[in-house]
Known about the structure:
Blueprint lengths: L1 H8 L15 E5 L16 E5 L7 H18 L2
Antiparallel strand pairs: 1-2
Amino acid sequence: EWRISVYRRDKFICKIGNEDCKGRIEAHHILGWTEFPELRYEINNGITLCHSHHPRKREEEKRLVNYFNELVSVSKI
Length: 77
């Protein structure tokens, strides 16, 4: 249910949406599942990314938190 809600809010497209987009879309937790259990099912803690843009390492995820939050806040308008 959380994943589909994130997809719907983001119109089923990668929020980065540049020429590098490829692969299936994935719902990504902006603040990690294990570190922030209270945010696991918060829609605004999710972002739709294509497989190419989905971070693969925790360090990269942490570095991108502010950027992802900006993209999500734009979605709410």
